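Q: For a teaching handout, I want to show students what a protein-ligand complex looks like in token form. Below are the inputs, and the small molecule is iron/sulfur cluster. Please produce the holo structure.
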Amino acid sequence: MKVTPGWDDDDDDSAATSRRTAVRETVHVLEALSATWAGHGCPASGDCCQLRSTGRSPWLWPSEWWVLEASLAEQGRALPPAREDGGCPFLDASGRRCSVYGARPSGCRSYFCHRRTGPAVEPAQATHALLERLTKLNLGVDSEAAPKSLPEWHAAASARL
Ligand code: SF4
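A: Here is the structure, written as tokens, with iron/sulfur cluster included.
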């Protein structure tokens, strides 16, 4: 993915550089996570993206949110508004498909509901190791960084518009 940060206008050069590096590393971790879960599948109903009705939401480190922002920039898209149905704002108009699939965060790559197909055993150890890498690289950018839910990131970004 081309990294097109739109968030570094106020940053000094070193902060912007470390964020860009974090985005690149995060893309690698996310791709590795998808590879780790490659044998697993689901009916792709989009039900798990209905965040309000499920009461569940992916939690993202800052670099995962930056990857989403970079994906939007690459697509020439603005931040989508919140959906009235409470679904993830990154769902497409059908409400069934992710519009940022290649940039989706770790939680979207490693969460499967009871309809999961594939190996009986989940790759918990490899997943944990990759999530540790995400943690470390984010804390390397900002020692006080913390994950937030996707709706929280979206609300904060919307408020800045
Ligand atoms: S980012 Fe994509 S996969 Fe993740 S909850 Fe939103 S629409 Fe679903």
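A: Two things your students might notice: The radius of gyration is 16 Å. Helices lie at 13-36, 51-54, 62-75, 106-110, 124-141, 150-160.
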